[in-house]
Design goal:
By secondary structure, this protein is of the alpha/beta class. It folds into two domains: about 130 residues, Nucleotidyltransferase, domain 5; about 220 residues, Rossmann fold (3-Layer(aba) Sandwich), CATH 3.40.50. About 35% of the residues lie in helices and about 20% in strands. The protein is built from 13 helices and 14 strands. It has a six-stranded mixed beta sheet, with helices on both faces. A five-stranded mixed beta sheet has the order 3-2-1-4-5. Strand 12, helix 10 and strand 13 form a beta-alpha-beta unit. Helix 7 runs parallel beside helix 11. It starts with a helix and ends with a helix.
Length: about 375
């Protein structure tokens, strides 16, 4: 009976809210529909694996290619790569090249375009693709990389027109969590620096960086920036949350949860979740990595910058400031992140300091007519 009820619920969600369905389940999408959403400069590589096999599908605007890849020991190799990065030792080069040879090299003949969208699966959500290396160059040097929770979400994300927002940046920095050990001094500097770059911006720091202020003001700004901690609950994914100001770090009522995001209409062009991971943890099924991203996507965010682990405060502050300076200068968000990562690499060569950052979302070269039409589609879905 429970299985029957779940199947019925899934069908109802798919019929009435296909945008939400694409974020919480596997949906069937026509190949031609995906290809129409791609620009001439883009390719998607979509991975899927089960207990025995690993597959990759490469899609561009004209073709589809599939490859069967080496599956054995994938999770262990990802864990080894992440651990080498966490230890900041040179062992990451060998493990990064092994993963490159497994995941990228067999597809090289099909990856012709400079912009690469990666739809990961399972443990691959934990993988910093930008830090994979062919032995000489990082993947970051070859491609402008963005990620998607799945290939089907390309149909529903990145379509919101937000040019009419009254505010530019709303930044939350170093919330007071009731315990000094959670203070992030550079996060406060980061929030001040980011907000200070743009006119019509605002910031909330310390006790003012609260969930109530987020709910009151977030919808009025084009860019939302969070320099804070996050908490992740694999047993109850909707309870995973951003940590905002509270009298006690244990008080869950003051957290901004994924469950709450699914009920909000934010319609932001960019959300940045800076330094929000609690560390390099055990590789699981990937839900904790993409959970907050999915929440903000469903709330109406075009693109989300997030981190795969919590990195050095000073390096993050420098990278984020450069990232927003580039956006202000007119670079696309995907280009800006890539170039900021390459710049910070000159000062901090180890991937620990720069490879954690990834951007989720789709293209930024939509025409105004298409953007307006897509906006109507999303609003229509929400009103059903």
């Amino acid at each position: 009976m429970l299985l029957f009820d779940m199947v019925c619920l899934t069908h109802k969600i798919s019929d009435r809210l296909p945008q939400l369905a694409s974020l919480i389940s596997v949906s069937q999408v026509n190949l031609s529909d995906i290809q129409q959403k791609l620009s001439a400069a883009q390719s998607i590589v979509s991975y899927y694996y089960d207990a025995d096999d690993l597959y990759a599908f490469v899609i561009d605007e004209k073709s589809l290619n599939a490859a069967r890849l080496e599956r054995n020991g994938l999770e262990d190799d990802i864990q080894s790569f992440r651990q080498a990065i966490a230890n900041q030792d040179e062992g990451y080069r060998q493990s990064g090249q092994m993963l490159y040879n497994r995941l990228i090299a067999p597809l090289a003949g099909q990856l012709h375009h400079p912009k690469l969208l990666v739809a990961a699966h399972g443990a691959l959500h934990y993988l910093p693709f930008a830090a994979l290396t062919d032995g000489q160059n990082f993947l970051l040097d070859r491609y402008e990389i963005s990620v998607l929770p799945s290939a089907s979400t390309l149909m529903y994300v990145g379509n919101i027109k937000v040019a009419d927002k009254p505010g530019t940046v709303l930044a939350f920095g170093n919330p007071d969590l009731g315990d000094k050990q959670y203070n992030l001094a550079f996060a406060e500097m980061e929030a001040k620096g980011v907000a200070g770059l743009f006119e019509k911006s605002a910031m909330f720091l310390g006790k003012e960086a609260s969930k109530s202020n987020f709910k009151e003001y977030a919808q009025g700004f084009k860019y939302l920036h969070f320099a804070t901690h996050g908490t992740f609950d694999s047993a109850h994914p909707l309870d995973s949350a951003l940590m905002l100001s509270t009298t006690s770090v244990e008080d869950t009522r003051d957290r901004l949860t994924i469950g709450e995001l699914y009920s909000m209409h934010i319609d932001a062009d960019l959300v940045t979740l800076s330094a929000c991971k609690t560390g390099l943890g055990k590789v699981a099924n990937g839900d904790d990595v993409v959970g907050l991203v999915r929440g903000f996507m469903y709330a109406g965010t075009n693109q989300i910058v997030s981190t795969l682990w919590e990195i050095d405060d000073a390096a993050t502050e420098s990278l984020m400031t450069d990232f927003y300076q580039r956006i202000k200068a007119g670079e696309s968000k995907t280009t800006a992140l890539r170039e900021s990562q390459r710049d910070i690499r000159k000062q901090y060569p180890n991937p620990f300091f720069w490879a954690a950052f990834q951007i989720t979302g789709r293209r930024e070269d939509m025409g105004q007519a298409e953007m307006h039409r897509s906006r109507k589609e999303v609003v229509g879905l929400r009103q059903q």
